[in-house]
Amino acid sequence: METTLVLLKPDCVQRNLMGEVISRFEKKGLTIRGMKMLRLDDSLITEHYGFLADKPFFPSLVEYMKSSPIVAMAISWANVVKTVRTMSGATNPVEAQPGTIRGDYALSIDGNIMHASDSEETAKEELERFFEKNEIFEYERLDSKVL
Length: 147
Known about the structure:
single chain; alpha+beta; Alpha-Beta Plaits; 4-stranded antiparallel beta sheet; 39% helix
């Protein structure tokens, strides 16, 4: 079983789409093992998006990510990194297929609803960045039991 990081970005929070996005993961059968709302600071944004620091749009990215709280989620299942990335759709919503989260809800590449880890290795690093070990929970889901 894999675990990946999903961030619901400020446009998702500000447009009251959090429940819609979370519901899609739950309806797919994925397990949310950790979830919290937090406000990002410059340090965490730079650590997370440091690979973009030399881009001309980086200052506006920092301001956008600080414009409201975000929601961080640790989501688990078999092949969850690929599953979540497929459900997310292309980063640029113009290229995202209808039926994907970005295809249905994102308005622009600057406000593209969510972040999802792109590999198991990246997921591990990102989960450690956003969650303490005691904030990710193991539990048995009722729907996994035969009644």
